[in-house]
Amino acid sequence: MKSYNLLFLIVVVMFASCKKEYLDRPDQNAPSLETYYTTAEQVNGATGLLYGSAWGPYMDRAFLSVGDIMGGTGVNLGTGDYAPYMNFTVSQTDPQVLKAWQAFYKAAGVSTILIRTFETKKASVSDPAYLNKGIAEAKFMRAVAYFYLTRLFKDVPIVTDPVALASSSDFNVPRYNQSDVLKFIIKDLQDAEAALPGTAAESGRVTSYSATGMLAKVYLYMKDYENAKVKALEVINSGKFNLYPDYYKMFSTATANGNIESLFEFRWVENGDFASGNHLQTNIGPGAILNPVGAGGYSSVVPSITLLTSFEPGDQRRKSIMEHGFFRADWTNPNFPNGFRYDTLSTTATVLRSFTPTRSNSAKYVIGPGSNGEKINGQSNNMSTYILRYADILLIYAEAALGSSASTSDAQALQYFNKVRHRAGFPVSQDKTSLNLDLILHERMIEFNFEGDYWFDVSRQGFEKAREILGNQERGQYSTNNGIRTIQHADVKAQFVSPNQLYLPVPAAEISVNPLLAQPAVSYY
To answer: Which pTM value belongs to this model?
Structure first.
């Protein structure tokens, strides 16, 4: 038998994009259960897939299209793939919608297969501890995949036996009520919390506190404030996490991977494979920085005017935005032999000019051309993508303490909220002494800009509040005439007019093979 690695054994589920199949068929050449998963190393190899490439299709354009363009922290003022997310006109045939659906069902499906495989394997080994850990990791990953799915699409199918479904001729699976999907997520996270170790043996692996923190985020989404507060406090009181001292550095070097602030991150490999590497730099970085390496930045998503004008004076997080004068001495190439300087004014050497509609680029996840030792291979690098950070836990506690009240002066909530601001450079003399929802959401927008997350903060507020938030945003661009800069405005509120726009539509390609997806949701439990 061939000595295939994990891919041949576990990747038997991927939602089809063009085929008339709900799931791909299992690979018949895979190694057998009797000969594999006999060691912790093999189990870790299998679950390792779930930390990166399984999510790849979403991490291309959908990650920023949903999280930042729809959220309003980023803009793309062209007419291409990003335009529907700017205008809230996303259709069932949108390619990013299908990629998101496929990515999360792939991650959930592979996780489910691993869970079932490891459970079966336990009967034939003397000490199943390494398998139990693998099951817990897979349950954590499945929960995260379904959490993305239900926040994006609301009512979605739950598939608990993808192998049987792939072997069937009937791919009809109904959508289940979001409340039931959230119950399913919580159960998986509770199981993961109970079985995962409190400390990771390998950098970047999830722990019991990763599950605890994710539970806090899920409970906050559900407006279960008491449980959100309890779970956030468990992470805080563990003493295992803290804020990374340098906010900008955390997003500009792979040496920060697995840092003290990270509870869960996607891990990538700089192997030139678009699906296995982090290529956010390619989508958001300025082109001049990378030429002639070949991974030129496209400036596809740039900071919005709302984001640029929302930073308070002295906020060190603004260093994560490239504006005129931004300089990195260690980023060198033939165009910038003495270091990279972000220049929006040059008129004599256009190759050196960075000129976007908002005269800015995000500096998050931009690690340079490789001249400073960072690992760059074509359009991929190995910097992690943060999915859950300790800053989120602190702000979750603050918001959960506020709950449905108009304001709070809760001492712990203020302590944790102000701790995030202290890292941003604000002195104790500028501590907030009272919190309300708008203040917390503003802080979240600044803290998590260009991390693919702010739209979920907006959408979980419900239609009316979301429309109020979006209506106060500026998604236009700067225009300069005779040296005077003005704003060409974009009216968001006129485009966001229906509660249906809080969620993406189910992909038409999936409905064509599973008509139940077009029907009302039903109960799972």
So the answer is: 0.92
